[in-house]
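Comment thread on ticket #2218

A.B. wrote:
> Attaching the input chain for the structure job we discussed in standup.
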Amino acid sequence: MKKIAIIHYKSLVGELILGSHGDDLCIADWLHRSMRSAIDARIKTGLNAEFVEQSSPVLQETIRQLDAYFYEGSTEFDIPIQLVGTSFQQKVWTALNAIPYGKTETYQGFSKKLGNEKATRAVATANGANAISIIIPYHRIIGSDVSLVGYAGGYRLRRSYWLWKTRIESTSWSCFEMLVEIKPNICINALFIFLNMLY
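C.D. wrote:
> Ran it. Output below, let me know if you need it in another format.
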């Protein structure tokens, strides 16, 4: 049976599991998330392969580019990716890459661009099943009220700060408007993390 090389990467906002199959990245997903077992099983079945804890050139390059993203302000990734899912899921994941850094799209607007405005639920399901976080930017799809709905990474403190910061960068709202409109617990978490990062 073929192998999927697996390593762990501790980012600023949580631990990721990275996996490569051949020369392609097939997993860059939150280690502690809902659907972890289901996504792992889907990838193993789809690639007819088993996880093996070892590194690979593409995984080392992924770490390098993630470091550049989190610590050096890089906004682009150039990593060969292998998508494992249904044709509809792959269509959604591919379209996500067309959303520029610093921009967001609502589920309804994104569904309309895919050709079916009424497919928001199917799009949300496919978005949540994405196994390549950050690089395929499913965090740029938001609720119509700018809420952080459907994000598989969850609401841990540092992740909340990162997502909240993304929302500010992608809208014309002031910080005050964001504090009023976005869920208060997320804003409190974000401010708590921001203050911690200053010291």
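A.B. wrote:
> Thanks. Noting for the ticket: Residues 2-71 form a domain with the Double Stranded RNA Binding Domain fold (CATH 3.30.160).
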